[in-house]
TrEMBL record:
Gene3D superfamilies: 3.40.50.450, Phosphofructokinase domain (3.40.50.460). Pathway: Carbohydrate degradation; glycolysis; D-glyceraldehyde 3-phosphate and glycerone phosphate from D-glucose: step 3/4. It comes from Atopococcus tabaci. ATP binds at G11, R72, F73, G102, D103, G104, S105. GO terms for cellular component: 6-phosphofructokinase complex. Its EC number is 2.7.1.11. It catalyses: beta-D-fructose 6-phosphate + ATP = beta-D-fructose 1,6-bisphosphate + ADP + H(+). Substrate binds at T125, I126, D127, R162, M169, G170, R171, E222, R243, H249, I250, Q251, R252. This is ATP-dependent 6-phosphofructokinase.
Length: 320
């Protein structure tokens, strides 16, 4: 290979820049020219190609977001558009592509591989909802951000003896809510993978107050319902006044944690190696601290990652 391109797609996540930097350095080590594709899959159509060595790589490892920019591009599901992307890549003499993103980005990578263009994907999403990996790039940083916020909310919840519902991101996966609830010492985690009832939460609040705990913290995954909807349900009988805090997009920003920087660097390096070896349609994940290769098609057929589901019963004692 003489040229390898890299793009970031979908929602941004802390550590994407570290992954891009690793692609550039690994490619350069093997005397391969690294190319940046700006604005994700849309950049393949708009021909937004730029030599990656033009970037200040030394300042990328610690920054959040993505310096390559990203965008949603639903038109990429059209095969005609995919074929145009392949044509543009070939016209730029690009021999392989590394895609950084979530499940939607994986589908785009698989489509390019199916058209015969060498493509490898690595997981970049705070939701941790991509199969084939224990952790996605950005998940650890998002947990740290959420826990820092919940710790602060705990202070005011305790001061005013209030019930708080803290809504966190995660889409249809409860990993972010579950992990941050455990780390922050919350009283309840409400996630899509585990059934719950409003009556059950109210009963637990009453039991908690009988034990002398005047404040109550609930970490709610956005995939279940909105925080204000839960607050309304819990307040419907007039027994409790419930406050809501939606952490929102602060969870997607900020400097990546050291763990995310290392994971991003290792996965991106393995992605370049995979392309050099002539493999395509592969995604690289982190399993038991090792970079592991899987077929993108196999990973997309899995329901999802759901570490929460695997570990939930081990931590039931924390929420009872």
């Amino acid at each position: 290979m003489k040229k390898i391109a890299v793009l970031t797609s979908g929602g941004d996540s802390p550590g994407m820049n570290a992954a891009v930097r690793s692609v550039a350095l690994k490619a350069n080590y093997h005397q391969i020219e690294p190319v940046a594709v700006q604005y994700g899959y849309k950049g393949l159509i708009d021909k937004n190609f730029l030599p990656l060595m033009n970037y200040n790589l030394g300042d990328m490892v610690h920054t959040g977001g993505t310096k390559l920019f990203t965008s949603r591009f639903p038109e990429f599901t059209d095969q005609v558009v995919q074929e145009e992307a392949v044509s543009n890549l070939k016209n730029e003499n690009i021999d392989g592509l590394v895609v950084i993103g979530g499940d939607g980005s994986y589908k785009g990578a698989q489509a390019l591989a199916d058209l015969g263009f060498p493509t490898v994907a690595i997981p970049g999403t705070i939701d941790n909802d991509v199969g084939g990996t224990d952790f996605s790039i950005g998940f650890d940083t998002a947990i740290n951000t959420a826990v820092d916020a919940i710790d602060k909310i705990r202070d005011t919840a305790t001061s005013h003896e209030r019930i708080f519902v803290v809504e966190v991101m995660g889409r249809e996966a409860g990993d972010l809510a579950y992990w941050s609830a455990i780390a922050a010492g919350a009283d309840m985690a409400v996630i899509p993978e585990i059934e719950f009832t409003t009556e059950g939460i109210l009963e637990d609040i009453d039991n908690s107050r009988l034990l002398g705990n005047k404040r109550y913290l609930i970490v709610l995954s956005e995939g279940v319902m909105k925080g204000y909807e839960m607050a309304e349900d819990l307040s419907c009988e007039g027994r409790h006044k419930v406050r809501v805090s939606q952490l929102g997009h602060i969870q997607r920003g900020g400097n990546p944690s050291p763990k995310d920087r290392v994971i991003a660097t290792r996965l991106a390096s393995a992605a370049v190696e995979t392309l050099i070896e002539g493999q395509s349609g592969i995604c690289i994940g982190m399993r038991n601290t090792r970079a592991e290769r899987n077929k993108i098609s196999d990973v997309l057929e899995q329901e999802t990652n759901f570490i929460s589901e695997i570990n939930s019963k081990r931590f039931d004692f924390l929420f009872n």
